[in-house]
Amino acid sequence: MPDTIRQQLIGAIDTKLKTILTANGYYSNLGQNVDEWNLSPLDTAGGETFRLTYRDEDEGRADVTVGNQDMTLSITVLILASGSTSLADVREMLADVVAAMHADPTWSGLANDTNMDGTAKLVKAEAADTAGGVELKFGIEYSVTRGAS
Questions:
Q1: Has residue 149 got a pLDDT over 60?
Q2: Confidence of residue 65 (pLDDT cuts 50, 70, 90)
Q3: Mean pLDDT for the stretch of residues 8-24
Q4: What is the pLDDT of residues 107-144, one digit of tens each?
Q5: 115: alpha, beta or left? (left if phi > 0; alpha if psi -120 to 50)
Q6: Is the pLDDT of residue 95 over 70?
Q7: Architecture of the domain whose range is 5-145
Q8: Helices 5-17, 87-102: crossing angle, 10 deg rounding
């Protein structure tokens, strides 16, 4: 059985976020450390200076039209950065994520559109061995055959 559209979207998001590299024209190399659903603290003692983690959350359902169900997949992206990372660098990482998530709003035809929900929340770490970061939320609108996911 093929993957659901939701799983295909998650795979596409993972692939795209891992392209966030200066070699690909981005400001940062955030794509070097991407995890799905990693909620553990940043390992600053082990040398981890940044991490991008994402998770799929609510999946809203909207109108049903001629056998199709409109869906909105909520994606939360969290950028963690050590306290030694400058706010300017964190803002560049933020810009990189927004650019990557909007590079192809239809995710190669899997979705109808991608929108950033609200504003980014920036939290500054106060010490080099603690982490601050940014949380962003995106909504990916897509349609499925009624009863599918």
A1: no
A2: low
A3: 98
A4: 999 999 999 986 677 676 665 555 678 889 999 999 88
A5: beta
A6: yes
A7: 2-Layer Sandwich (3.30)
A8: 140
> Nearest 10 degrees: CA dihedral of 90, 94, 99, 102?
170
Q: Which amino acid is at 12?
A: A
Enter the DSSP assignment of 139.
E
Contact between 138 and 74 under an 8 Å Cβ cutoff? The reply is yes
Percent composition of the chain: helix, strand, coil (DSSP 3-state, to 5): 25, 40, 40
Least Cα distance to 31 among 47, 14, 56 occurs for: 14
Q: Spell out the residues 6+ positions from residue 69 whose beta carbon is closer than 8 angstroms to its own.
A: 61, 62, 63, 143, 144, 145, 146, 147, 148
pTM above 0.70, yes or no: yes
Q: Where in the chain are the domains?
A: 5-145
